[in-house]
TrEMBL record:
Ranges of compositional bias, category Gly residues: 103-116
Protein known as: NTP pyrophosphohydrolase MazG-like domain-containing protein
Residue ranges of every copy of the NTP pyrophosphohydrolase MazG-like domain listed in the record: 31-85
Region (Disordered) location: 97-129
SUPFAM superfamilies (UniProt xref): all-alpha NTP pyrophosphatases
InterPro entries reported in the protein's UniProt record: MazG-like_dom
Length: 129
């Protein structure tokens, strides 16, 4: 199932059950509560952690639907944007996004941090979203 289909099915379920489909502020509140429940399940090692993450997703797609947002399209665009971003570590190991290389600079040159920081690999402190 793709995100677009899940968004549509979740929306149809809300309509069928008579759940909130108009109050965005309430939906954000419920989404926040579900994030808290997912965190608690993770922290306590509970077996329903995956189900709680699914609840977060369902509230998220509802907020998107309420606002006319094609979440799948947005996610696809954001992944492409993040893939094309370049990050470097400074001398302290902190990641900085490089907006564009300075004229004539090679990889890792002219970036924050002085002595030629290296391009960041996966799992850095920033840049996931």
């Amino acid at each position: 199932m793709d995100i677009r289909s899940a968004q549509q099915l979740a929306w149809e379920n809300k309509l069928d059950k008579g759940f909130n489909v108009t109050d965005v502020a309430v939906e954000f509140g419920l989404l926040t509560a579900e994030v808290g429940e997912a965190f608690t399940a993770w922290r306590k090692g509970l077996p329903d952690f995956g189900e709680e993450l699914a609840d977060v997703f369902l509230y998220l797609v509802a907020v998107a639907q309420m606002n006319g947002i094609d979440l799948q399209g947005e996610v696809e665009r954001k992944i492409a944007k993040n893939r094309d971003r370049v990050y470097v570590r400074d001398a302290r190991g902190v990641l900085h996004r490089v907006e564009g290389p300075p004229a004539g600079a090679g990889p890792g040159e002219g970036a924050p941090g002085g002595d030629g920081p290296q391009p960041a690999g996966r799992g850095g402190r920033r840049g996931e979203g």
